[in-house]
Write a structure and sequence with these properties.
Radius of gyration: 28 Å
Helix content: 40-55%
Number of strands: 10
Structural class: alpha+beta
Strand order of the largest sheet: 3-4-5-2-1-8
Number of helices: 19
Length: 396
């Protein structure tokens, strides 16, 4: 058993439930993470106590999901989710149960869960309840559905994304029958909410094995968003060469899909997945810069920075190094470190200075652009005196 122990607030909730005659266990992802030697972010408890009983035991509890038996208990400013043992009815929308029935049996509750590694329960005494072999599957680094895989995925189609995302995050292998069911039932994913698909994709892309995007695509889980699947193997493994940040990894995935002929444009693909405007704009611009010639001088880098901004140019440099090879990021870093002017805010004169010279409207804007272009080429001349004299001389 892992040396990781739950916080005192979580232990107190478990103890309080047991003291009143109820069964209570840590369950799900927190137990899995403990067995992997990872400190959990969230601590979930399942119990034989009904939601109303949990609310009575804990005066600071909140009924956050009574329909599904979930109560949030606050202990020492920590939120702990407590959910009553339950079984579920049919899933007509392949996402949410039509009905929930509370039960008194732990095994019945665990049998409804997605994967064996998430169907392990741990009581305060430390004697693991593992009716479906989740501990062995964790030891063997295997993702296996609880019970019949096809039934699990018919209940909740998002579980197919979760299986591949967990494989990418944990470096696990998906068990053969579970993987076969994903390939068979992938068309069910077309009805999933876009935001759910996007969130699972982002978690996969930010994992240590983003190349499993290829598995997700080959299974057909993204058919709704693609013109076609790649012919041959796309180099998704190169995404791992980028920092684990959303912007460059989303951009890289979209660029690789476009190059494989799977999507028409980076912008349209990311918009269809409802990414934020910043990510869509920066990714589209960075993808365009990736197709342009590599800047060959500091002046060319500064003009690119002027036109697109630091974030986009930096993203394109990272992409170029990861997808094409080279040292663009190093060259860009040298330009940024130099402190040389490439934007209006670093120009030694302002619009107010030019207003004082009598410039107005479009003439003023054109002069600012002229001075900025001049300073980009002659960085040593970015002084107030030189630029004001230049503005006066040009007007005269």
């Amino acid at each position: 058993m892992s040396a990781i122990t739950p916080p005192s607030a979580v232990r107190q909730v478990l103890t309080a439930l047991q003291a009143r005659g109820h069964l209570a266990y840590l369950v799900g992802g927190c137990v899995r993470d403990m067995l992997l030697g990872v400190t959990p972010h969230d601590w979930d408890i399942c119990t034989s106590a009904l939601p109303e009983e949990v609310l009575t035991i804990f005066p600071h509890a909140e009924p956050t999901g009574l329909k599904h038996g979930t109560v949030t208990v606050w202990e020492h400013k920590r939120a702990v989710e407590v959910t009553t043992f339950r079984t579920e009815g049919s899933y007509s929308d392949h996402r949410h149960p039509d009905a929930v029935c509370f039960v008194a049996d732990l095994r019945t509750d665990l049998s409804r869960r997605d994967f064996t590694m998430n169907a392990i329960a741990l009581p305060p005494d430390g004697l693991i309840a593992d009716p479906f072999g989740g501990v062995d599957d964790i030891r063997n680094r295997l993702i296996r559905c609880v019970g019949e895989p096809e039934r699990r995925f018919e209940e909740d189609a998002l579980r197919m994304f979760r299986a591949i995302r967990f494989a990418a995050k944990l470096n696990f292998t998906i068990e053969a029958e579970t993987l076969a069911a994903i390939y068979k039932l992938a068309p069910l994913s077309a009805a999933l909410a876009v935001e759910r698909v996007r969130d699972e994709l982002e978690k996969l892309l930010l994992s240590s094995h983003p190349e499993l995007l290829g598995t997700l695509i080959s299974a057909g889980l993204l058919d709704r968003y693609l013109r076609r699947r790649p012919e041959g193997e796309a180099p998704f493994s190169r995404i791992a060469l980028l920092p684990r940040k959303a912007l460059p990894r989303w951009c890289a995935a979209a660029v690789l899909l476009k190059e494989a002929g799977c999507i028409a444009s980076v912008q349209d693909f990311l918009a269809a997945l409802r990414l934020d405007n910043r990510t869509i704009r920066c990714s589209a611009d960075a993808a365009a810069l990736l197709e342009a010639s590599v800047p060959k001088s500091a002046v060319e880098w500064k003009r690119q920075l002027r036109d697109y901004g630091v974030e986009t140019v930096r993203c394109s440099a990272k992409l170029r190094d990861a997808l094409r090879g080279g040292r663009s990021e190093r060259a860009l870093a040298a330009v940024l470190k130099s402190g040389e002017c490439f934007s209006m805010k670093h120009l030694a004169v302002s619009g107010d200075d030019l207003l004082a010279l009598g410039l107005r409207g479009r003439t003023l804007g054109d002069m600012l652009n002229f001075l900025l272009d001049y300073v980009i080429s002659f960085p040593g001349n970015n002084t107030r005196e030189i630029l004001l004299n230049l503005a006066k001389g040009t007007e005269e």
